[in-house]
Design goal:
The protein has 256 residues and is an alpha/beta fold. It has two domains: 89 residues, 60s Ribosomal Protein L30, Chain: A, CATH 3.30.1330.30; 154 residues, SPOUT methyltransferase, trefoil knot domain (Alpha/beta knot, 3-Layer(aba) Sandwich), CATH 3.40.1280.10. The protein contains ten helices and ten strands. A six-stranded parallel beta sheet has the order 7-6-5-9-8-10. A four-stranded mixed beta sheet has the order 1-4-2-3, sandwiched between helices.
Length: 256
């Protein structure tokens, strides 16, 4: 049985704080909890049905002392999901920060004020799929440990590190280093004949406003994702997560 204090703590992370002062956040789902354990992530506690614990005993480290059998009703009370799974875990965030040269050695993604949790989670999932290990976000972008982001990322946080910092400073440093910044615009050049260099930063803006004037000056190359010929159906842009996925496919695909 989970204690009342622990249950209240998990609910507070799910609904308000997302991560506490010690860097703890919540993950949910039978597969996600198992994947985190198998990957050696810093899981500090598991709350799961007895059947799940028994069937996954081989991946639970002996050093993990807080493995608590709970009923489905207990999981439902602390879950952020409409239909909860059989396992929930507390994980400690990795606060290490790779150096600038590491982040910019290949392709990385930069996001300005992306505010929808589902969008950020989908972008993280796509970045993991296409092998893009770093996403740099403005500080007003939604928290990557928001439960909705974690769920939408489908384990993408296992291989993608999300960093929050001032993008003007980061992109300014990239410009000084001769690293190209590729911005997405409705009026940019088409992707069909584009051949990306070995490294660079793909920049995407806010869901409704796009790339702001504050960052526009750091963009080296303006690119657009063309719509089908003859289509004029009132849709003036793609969802930012879809646009990011297409851009990552184009950049990574042309590298293969």
């Amino acid at each position: 049985m989970i204690s009342k204090n622990r249950a209240a703590f998990i609910v507070s992370l799910q609904k308000k704080k997302h991560r506490d002062e010690n860097g703890l956040y919540v993950i949910e789902g039978d597969k996600m909890v198992k994947d985190y354990l198998m990957a050696g992530m810093p899981v500090v506690a598991v709350y799961a049905k007895r059947e799940w614990i028994a069937s996954n005993r081989s991946v639970i480290p002996e050093a993990l002392s807080e493995v608590v059998p709970v009923t489905y009703d207990e999981i439902r009370r602390i879950s952020a999901l409409t239909t909860p799974h059989n396992a929930i875990a507390l994980v400690r965030t990795d606060n290490s920060s790779p150096g600038f040269d590491t982040i910019t050695a290949g392709y990385s993604l930069a996001l300005e004020t992306v505010q929808d949790p589902g969008n950020l989670g989908t972008i993280i999932r796509s970045a993991a799929w296409f092998g893009i290990p770093y996403i740099i976000c403005t500080r007003d972008t939604v928290d990557c440990y928001n439960p909705k982001v974690v769920q939408a990322s489908m384990g993408g946080l296992l291989s993608v590190k999300v960093l929050y910092e001032g993008l003007e400073s980061f992109l300014g440093r990239a410009r000084e280093a001769g690293i190209s910044v590729f911005g997405t615009y409705t009026g940019g050049s088409g992707l069909s004949g584009f051949h990306p260099p070995e490294n660079g930063i793909i920049l995407l803006g806010n869901e409704s406003r796009g790339i702001s004037g504050a960052l526009d000056g750091y963009v080296s190359v303006r690119l657009s994702i063309p719509r089908a010929r003859g289509q004029d159906n009132g849709i003036d842009s793609l969802n930012v997560a879809m646009a990011a996925t297409i851009m990552m496919y184009e950049f990574s695909g042309k590298r293969w």
